[in-house]
Amino acid sequence: MKVFISRRIPEDVVRLLQQENMEIAYNNSDRKLSREELVEACLEADLLFNVGSADLNASFMESCKHLKGIALTSVGYDHADLHAATRYGIPVSNTPDVLSKTTADTAFLLMLATSRKAFYWSRQIERGAWKDNGFLYELGIELNRKTLGVFGLGRIGLELAKMAKAAYGMTVIYHNRSRNAEAEELLDARYVSFDELLEESDVLSVHTNLTPETQYRFDAECFRKMKKNAIFINTSRGKVHHEKDLIRALQEGQLWGAGLDVTDPEPMLPENPLLQMPNVCVLPHIGSATLETRTAMATMAAKNLIAVYHGGKMPQVVNKNVYEK
Ligand code: DGY
Known about the structure:
Layout: E1 2-5, H1 11-19, E2 23-26, H2 35-43, E3 47-50, H3 58-63, E4 69-72, H4 82-87, E5 92-93, H5 100-115, H6 118-126, E6 147-151, H7 155-168, E7 171-175, H8 181-187, E8 190-191, H9 194-200, E9 203-206, H10 220-225, E10 231-234, H11 243-251, E11 257-260, E12 280-282, H12 291-309
Parallel strand pairs: 1-2, 1-3, 3-4, 4-5, 6-7, 6-9, 7-8, 9-10, 10-11, 11-12
């Protein structure tokens, strides 16, 4: 079987595949392939090691329906049409768990950076505008003993909640489809309704998959219900919040600040007003971007492909029903 690796990955992980005697075709560069290039390369392959967030929509699946497996290098799988993959019998895997702590670190970083307007102050220095601004100029707010609200308290949300509790004694509330017994036991986390989450959170952090139900879930009406001194954090997917509504809520003082690792669209346009706001910190979707975590994610993806190569099931398959056919 031949595997196509769509972008540069750690050498150790390439070796892992080589040790299995798999035939490898490799885009050994950081350049993102065009749709046409990706399809063309996949037509020559049996397995796809999909590095990054290339849009694997229904038409891609149709063009590449001969594939025996697709390994994603992300926990989110909204960029892959799983219905189409299942229809063609293609198992698709993701990379859960190994990135939870690192992505939670990114949310924590944004929470703290936003609360202290850190990116704004750094921009001031770069602009040569470091001056004595006075005692009360662009002050931050503290996180100590505040309430952290988590929308989607799964693996990543739990890691963030643990850090927030340990660092600042924050009270944890959450809203999920189902209760998280571990968080309730470990952190005294309190399950609340969606409206209570909006109304009670001092920091509201989003950790959910992008689905038709969560798309644009945080809109003008939600921001109006939040506290005026609340901080909104999103490290999941940019389409979970309505960006224009968020901009307006911040401009009108309905919210105190926002920290985003994900935007809509990505990349964010440089003229986006969010980038000029003192109380906003934006990162370019680097949630899992550490050497250790990216290596662990690539290793997990490789192991899923190796399982298919040996005639087995992908351990981290996301379209589980593909194996029921
Ligand atoms: C993930 O793993 O889903 C990250 O957001 C990268 O896309």
